[in-house]
Write a structure and sequence with these properties.
Elements: H1 2-11, H2 15-39, H3 45-51, H4 54-81, H5 87-103, H6 112-128, H7 130-153
Helix pairs in contact: 1-4, 1-7, 2-4, 4-5, 4-7, 5-7
Length: 167
């Protein structure tokens, strides 16, 4: 946890980086709210927020903040390496975003796109077990933050291709 805090301090060292983290967090939160709004006919933002339980709103805010911080740390690590993201890294970030969307399913009817992909049985399973999906999404995000923190801090050595910092 200490390495994540140190990497966050390094990653959020400028006002621009803090703005980027906040913008990504707000964007992810907006995505989590707008997906059911646009996929459900007759739905609007105010109605969607009124029917979403407060626990799910807190979960959405937590996942949004974690994704914003992860993006900022990841961007800092890539700038330090002066490399483009690999397909594996991009897929991991998309997977984390997808897990965030699945973990915030408050009602099956609100996510007709999920219903179309997973069917009635799959969507019922996801809604019934959304707290487990939430725990998995948070755990996956924290693991990604830990791995990215090692790159930002320069402490992962040959495993990630970064030369370790000298004390």
């Amino acid at each position: 946890m200490k390495s994540i805090v140190n990497a966050l301090k390094t990653s959020l060292d400028s006002p621009r980086a803090r703005f980027q983290a906040a913008a990504v967090a707000l964007g992810v939160f907006a995505l989590l709210v707008l997906v059911p709004v646009y996929t459900t006919p007759g739905n609007d933002i105010a109605f969607q927020l009124s029917i979403t339980p407060w626990e799910v709103l807190v979960l959405m805010a937590l996942l949004s903040a974690l994704n914003g911080l992860l993006f900022t740390m990841y961007r800092r690590a890539k700038l330090a390496e002066k490399k483009r993201p690999s397909t594996k890294e991009a897929t991991t970030l998309l997977g984390i975003a997808g897990a965030s969307v699945l973990s915030t399913l408050a009602c099956a009817a609100c996510y007709s796109s999920v219903l179309a992909v997973f069917g009635v049985g799959g969507t019922a399973f996801i809604v019934t077990n959304r707290w487990w999906f939430s725990a998995a999404a948070i755990g996956l995000t924290l693991f990604a933050m830990h791995a990215t923190a090692k790159k930002v801090n320069g402490t992962c050595g040959d495993a990630c291709g970064v030369v370790e910092k000298k004390p």
